[in-house]
């Protein structure tokens, strides 16, 4: 039976996905050791308790074996689980993407109403920094995350603010899944969102962020 994912368990589930992606990207095999808890805390920018819970989930599924005092290893003979994990990964990513498509555009009226001048200046600064890093073919994850989290904070919606760690992980997962191939789209749509906000154009801001999120979904489905 497929696991029911609640907000409380979503961050560990996303970290499960990051670990799975790491295993596949580095072509680790049954018997290989994965990074330590402290290393994964730094790699994925999550707490130790989140990493611990993610490892526990994979251990329960039979994917990882924990050797106390030694480390955590890919379980011998676990290849049958990897295909299922890949299927679960796509489902989880799409679930999160569709959740964001529903929620983030509807925050725009609050953002337009509540955003401060300093936050507007920071939005445009983040756009500039993203464009610079993309032009240099550098990682722009930090700027992308900062852009979306600034919008959530600017909305003043405390429930959405609590979801920021989940959105951070979701952005990282989509960047990994699409190989950062949406660079030019990222430049255009992020700046379109910022311009619409500064003009007080709620409809334009909603359309721009919806377009940005839909591009991510389409690229992931049809890549």
UniProtKB/TrEMBL annotation:
Residues 9-77 form the HTH gntR-type domain. It comes from the Bacteria. The keyword Transcription applies. Keywords: DNA-binding, Transcription, Transcription regulation. InterPro entries: GntR_C (IPR011711), TF_FadR/GntR_C (IPR008920), Tscrpt_reg_HTH_GntR (IPR000524), WH-like_DNA-bd_sf (IPR036388), WH_DNA-bd_sf (IPR036390). It holds the Pfam family FCD. GO terms for molecular function: DNA binding; DNA-binding transcription factor activity. The keyword NAD does not apply. This is FadR family transcriptional regulator. It comes from Entomospira entomophila.
């Amino acid at each position: 039976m497929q696991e029911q994912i609640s907000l409380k368990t979503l961050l560990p589930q996303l970290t499960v996905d990051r670990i799975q992606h790491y295993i596949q990207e580095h072509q680790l095999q049954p018997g290989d050791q994965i990074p330590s808890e402290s290393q994964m805390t730094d790699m994925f920018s999550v707490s130790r308790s989140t990493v611990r819970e993610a490892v526990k989930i994979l251990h329960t599924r039979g994917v990882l074996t924990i050797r106390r005092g030694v480390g955590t290893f890919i379980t011998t003979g676990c290849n049958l689980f990897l295909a299922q994990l890949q299927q679960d990964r796509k489902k989880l990513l799409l679930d999160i993407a569709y959740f964001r498509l529903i929620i983030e555009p509807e925050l725009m009226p609050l953002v337009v109403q509540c955003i401060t001048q300093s936050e507007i200046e920071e939005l445009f600064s983040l756009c500039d920094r993203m464009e610079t890093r993309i032009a240099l073919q550098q990682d722009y994850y930090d700027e992308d995350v900062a852009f979306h989290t600034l919008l959530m904070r600017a909305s003043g919606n405390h429930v959405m603010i609590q979801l920021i760690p989940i959105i951070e992980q979701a952005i990282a997962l989509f960047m990994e899944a699409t190989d950062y191939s949406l660079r030019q789209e990222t430049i255009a749509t992020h700046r379109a969102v910022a311009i619409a906000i500064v003009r007080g154009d709620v409809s334009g801001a909603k359309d721009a962020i919806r377009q940005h999120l839909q591009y991510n979904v389409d690229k992931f489905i049809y890549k």
